[in-house]
Structures are given as structure tokens and as C-alpha cells.
Design goal:
Layout lengths: L4 E4 L5 E5 L2 E5 L3 E10 L5 E10 L4 E11 H4 L1 E17 L12 E17 L4 E15 L9 H4 L9 E13 L10 E11 L9 E14 L4 E14 L10 E2 L13 E2 L2 E18 L2 E17 L11 E12 L3 E10 L2 E8 L4
Antiparallel strand pairs: 1-2, 2-4, 3-4, 4-5, 5-6, 6-7, 7-8, 8-9, 9-10, 10-11, 11-12, 12-13, 13-16, 14-15, 16-17, 17-18, 18-19, 19-20
């Protein structure tokens, strides 16, 4: 059960969303969740998610983003998180990890992520980020799967870890909207470092780049989208497995479950066509509905020299979107990989 209440501004745009839910499944039991999303201005977003499950799981996710502080000179993004997920899977490191080695564990993450930077131009941003997280690994809630520590007893990070990392990033963004874009390009590169000298559990350096292009055709009835990502991590052997680059889930390979593949690097290409099927007014709000055929291609690798080896995963699928511009996107994606199908439901575009 997920009722959604929208609050509109005098201009008819959605200013706030309240979306509580009540769910049940065999792993989590009964879960109650409260969600609040606020959009004080086109450049601001406030988020509060509180969840409590009768079996193991908890969630507190508080976030704030403002991309045009002090007359558009600065930007800031803050997030506080406490999450306990009892259904996390692990199959092994590398792209050749096998389905029959599936294990389960509970991942508990408590931490803070912050980003502050300068808007160099109206489309270019330079930012500095700080990440402090405590990670704990416990037995999971999937009773018919072995605990990850039983099958992979030497896996780095099984005993938990504290991650303290700093990031510098440069981004360029010409999209016409942050939440419901229909045209433009966004690209960025980043460098992240973690050091034991600053209290982190491991020394590592992560570097990567990401980009997305949106091209409307047929009077914006169709938007062709391409998204690419490359990321490499170099670090100590004891770098926790949960912070290594991963693929699988709602915004990477949508034919696999979340973080199906772990490695020291990842490559990803997403292609999708957002086709407007219907536009109508519901309860005084103009809504749009899209059908989205897509294909995701990606692989993880264990070293730069091994990037050409291993399997390239290809996951075609079909998605559906419900939008109230400029702030709200609800989505359903169904992807098919070589191990079966995966279904994801959520808010916002995947990229």
C-alpha cells in the first residue's frame, strides 16, 4: 500500500510529496515507511525517509541539496544515512562470479556524505566532498542462503569497517532540468582518496568519469538517452569489498539485482528511448506517461590490464514512467539478464 499526496504551488507545480507505505514480504516481514520530498525552488530538494521493519531492517535517510546558493555562486549537498538491509547478496569478486555461489548478509551503514563547491560558470561546477561511514556485516534475513562469511571467509571487510574518504569532482551540465530533463549533456570526472592516517580502514584511490546525453526528436515525443560510466579503484588488499566498484541494480545493469558484480573497476553503457505515450490531467495535475525500451551493457574487471577479459553483460528491458514536471518521476523497470529477470520500482530517472 503506497498512497501518494502531492501539494501544488499556485502555479500548479508540485512543491511537496508525502508518500507513506506499508509492505510485506517473507524476508523483511511488515515494513512501514514514511517519505517526504520538498522542492522549495527549482534548485533545491529536501528529502526525509524513515522506515522500520518487523524483521531486522531500519532506514533513516535525510538529505538536502541546493545548487544555486548565494546568487548561484555555490552549491551544497548533505546526506545523513542509517540503513540496515537484510537481503544483500554476494556471489564473489570479479565478472566471472557464479550464480551458484550466492550468499546473503545484512549490511548496516551509518554515515554522512557532504559536498560543497563553486559554480565556475552557469554550467560548470567544481566541488569537494567528504564521506564518513561505518559499515557492519551481519547474518542476513534470507534463511535458505549461506552467510557470506561461511563461503568467503577471507573476504576483506567481513568484520566491518570505517570509511573516511575525500573527493574532488568537476562537472559540466547543460540539461534543461535536473529531475525531468529532455535535452542537453552532463559529464563529470572525480578523484576520491581514502587514507588510514585519517581514520579510514584502508588506503585506496578511486578515479572515474560519467556522462549522459539527451536528444529529443519528434517534438519531444521521443527522447534518446545514452549514459556511460568508467571507474577504477586502486588500493590495499584489505579494502572492504562493499566499497569496491559494482554493477547491478536500478541505475546500472537492470537485468541483475543490486551490486551483483564486484571488481576493482567497472565499465557501463546504458541506452534507452523515452517515448511519451499519454499526457492528461489528474486531480488538477498535468501528468505524462512514458514507455522506455532500454539496453544496458557493462562489465567489472580486477585490474586495468584485464579490462578486455571477462564477460560483457547485456541486459535488455522495458520501463514505464509517470511524470509531473518539473520535479516528480515515478518509474518501473523490468530488465532481463542471463540469470533471469529483475524488477525495480522507484523515484527519479536512473540517470
Amino acid at each position: 500500500m503506497l498512497p501518494v499526496v502531492l501539494f501544488r504551488s499556485p502555479a500548479g507545480e508540485v512543491e511537496r510529496i508525502i508518500a507513506p507505505s506499508l509492505t510485506f514480504n517473507e524476508i523483511r516481514g511488515v515494513t512501514g515507511t514514511f517519505r517526504y520530498f520538498g522542492y522549495p525552488s527549482p534548485d533545491e530538494r529536501v528529502q526525509a525517509i524513515l522506515g522500520y521493519s518487523s524483521r531486522i531492517e531500519r532506514e533513516v535517510d535525510l538529505g538536502y541539496r541546493h545548487l544555486a546558493l548565494f546568487a548561484n555562486r555555490f552549491h551544497v549537498e548533505l546526506r545523513l544515512l542509517h540503513e540496515r538491509d537484510a537481503a544483500v547478496r554476494f556471489f564473489g569478486l570479479g565478472g566471472e562470479s557464479r550464480e551458484e555461489n550466492e550468499t546473503n548478509f545484512t549490511l548496516e551503514t551509518t554515515g554522512f556524505r557532504g559536498r560543497f563547491g563553486v559554480n565556475v560558470t552557469p554550467t560548470a561546477r567544481l566541488s569537494l566532498g567528504e564521506r564518513v561511514e561505518k559499515i557492519e556485516i551481519r547474518r542476513g534475513g534470507v534463511r535458505d542462503l549461506p552467510f557470506v562469511g561461511e563461503r568467503f571467509p577471507t573476504l576483506p571487510g567481513l568484520g566491518g569497517a570505517v570509511i573516511h574518504a575525500q573527493r574532488v569532482a568537476f562537472t559540466f551540465d547543460t540539461r534543461d532540468s535536473l529531475t525531468t530533463p529532455t535535452r542537453g549533456v552532463a559529464a563529470g570526472a572525480f578523484l576520491e582518496a581514502s587514507a588510514e592516517a585519517l581514520g579510514s580502514a584502508a588506503n585506496y584511490v578511486r578515479i572515474g568519469g560519467e556522462g549522459v546525453s539527451l536528444n529529443p526528436v519528434f517534438d519531444h515525443r521521443l527522447v534518446l538517452v545514452a549514459h556511460g560510466l568508467v571507474e577504477v579503484l586502486s588500493g590495499d588488499e584489505d579494502t572492504p569489498f562493499v566499497v569496491r566498484p559494482a554493477l547491478g541494480g536500478e541505475d546500472t545493469l537492470r537485468g541483475f539485482g543490486a551490486n551483483r558484480f564486484f571488481g576493482d573497476g567497472r565499465l557501463l553503457l546504458n541506452l534507452e528511448a523515452r517515448v511519451r505515450m499519454l499526457r492528461l490531467e489528474l486531480f488538477g495535475v498535468e501528468a505524462e506517461f512514458e514507455g522506455v525500451p532500454f539496453v544496458d551493457l557493462g562489465k567489472v574487471f580486477t585490474s586495468v590490464g584485464a579490462v578486455h577479459r571477462g564477460r560483457l553483460e547485456v541486459t535488455p528491458g522495458l520501463g514505464f514512467r509517470a511524470l509531473t514536471r518539473p520535479n516528480v518521476v515515478g518509474r518501473l523497470d523490468i530488465g532481463v539478464g542471463r540469470e533471469g529477470a529483475a524488477i525495480f520500482v522507484g523515484l527519479d530517472y536512473p540517470f
